[in-house]
Amino acid sequence: MSSCLIVRLSLLLSFYTSYALAASHTTKHWPRGASTRFYEFKVQKTYVTKLCNRKEIITINGMFPGPVVYAQEDDRVIVKVTNETPHNATIHWHGVRQRLSCWADGPSYITQCPIQAGQTFTYEFTLSQQKGTLLWHAHVNWLRATVHGAIVVYPKTGVPYPFPHPYEEHVLVLGEYWHKNVLKIEKQVLASGGGPPIADAYLINGHPGPLYNCSSNDVYQIDVVPGKTYLLRIINAALNMEHFFSISNHKMTIVEADGEYMKPFTVDQLMITPGQTTNVLVHADQPIGKYDMAMGPYMSAQNTPFQNITAIAHFQYTGASLTSVGLPAELPSFNDNLAVKSHLDGLRSLNASDLPLEIDNNLFFTIGLNVEKCHSATPNKSCQGPNGGVFAASMNNITFVKPQVALLQAYYDSIQGHFKENFPGVPMKIYDFVNGAPNNFPNDTNSLNDTRVKVLEYGSRVQLILQDTGTVSTENHPIHLHGYSFYVVGSGTGNYNPLTAKLNLVDPPYLNTIGVPVGGWAALRFTADNPGVWFMHCHLEIHTSWGLSMAFLVKNGKGPLETLPHPPSDLPKC
């Protein structure tokens, strides 16, 4: 089943009655799914033709984007993944909170070693108290450029949406495309010490649209009936770019973000970062015609090249002429930070009943880029960063180094020497993070290369301030936390000041990926009630490659439902 298929709720097979759980995000007992959903993923080489060129890409089951995983709240999901390529592979179930199933989370060398060529690994997890739109993607190297797809989780049987029932639902997966092999691009970029090349195209459900070469007929289209309301499940699976999205002459009402219901919020455009999902209602209330759906760039960093050609899909009314030209959609300018702020400020949770009001751990993490000094014998080839340096990235000025053994395995088996438990809870140096950051690169912008985790006691209530820095350039960073969602209780520009920061402790949005404002901060809250090792990183893949990441180690609790389970028997070995 393709993400390009129209999903009509009336055609869904009936599900078995599910077990009732509390309305909050906290699990009161071991979740039992209403039913079990089985999927088989084969990591395969596939040929596609885009922009006048035919090339080989890596896909799941030969589909690009990959197959949609359909389920219902509290279902058990079992996915058998077989790697039929020569490349290492893993699958991350982005936004799935993996309650007591940390082994199934998927990031390579964090919770598992990669699935090597010819190997099989079966992921098992329960969608405990989760519903809405999520995504899955590869989580090793840059493979997720083409290995990605949607997860659609419907409410329990008999439970309606908290908004008007749509006539139809459609999945829209936003992506990026390169002519060259992305795994080769990754190796070349990291070897050069410089920045990545821009994408050759943006894609909507695998189609670039008519503004690109040889693509006049390579356009995704939604056929709509006048007067009907449609639910669009929008997923940003792009690799290195944040995006704006809009529909010509149509307003969008946001009703869900990152798999959590929101108070309805109507917008003309939205900004969606890699890793984020947004559900919107669109009413077909315009004159019969063809209307463009547009995907364009949001670039907040200074002096950074990017693809500026818009991807186009069509929102076409029944009865419109087949030869009609799509009415163009308006997008904000590529650096419209105010539009991004308005979007984030408008998100309000429909239910924030378990928001931590008292805090046990106050954490403060700086995030940003660094430039390391060149130590290469061939600096012209391998030191192409600013002033002859090498690009890096860090949290609290520590550049994360992936270990040779998965962190979760090393922790579970007490294997020494693969990580340290001393990731700092506050920056090691205090300065004017936004306006006075050291930027005499590479002389004073080096970071510490290490593999460190931050230890959290089970049940501790955490507030985490993420602070953007101007070491190389201030920039909006989409930060994703595995294994948890978090309440975004505040955000703002400049340096975070606890005396003046305004926090929303009534209805903050509950997200798993937050675009930390350019030159600003975001305040997150969550309860550490899921034992395991959980990766947190920038979802711009180049930044993760440079080291903008860390991991939390959440200790076991005292009860049987507060303890990390044994690893599965087929867990891949390093």
TrEMBL record:
Pfam families named among the record's database cross-references: Cu-oxidase (PF00394), Cu-oxidase_2 (PF07731), Cu-oxidase_3 (PF07732)
EC number from the UniProt entry: 1.10.3.2
Signal sequence interval, chain numbering: 1-22
Gene Ontology BP annotations: lignin catabolic process
Primary localization: secreted
Note on how the cofactor is bound: Binds 4 Cu cations per monomer.
CC cofactor: Cu cation
Annotated family: Belongs to the multicopper oxidase family.
Job of this protein: Lignin degradation and detoxification of lignin-derived products.
Name of this protein: Laccase
Species: Dioscorea zingiberensis
Upper taxonomic lineage: Eukaryota, Viridiplantae, Streptophyta, Embryophyta, Tracheophyta
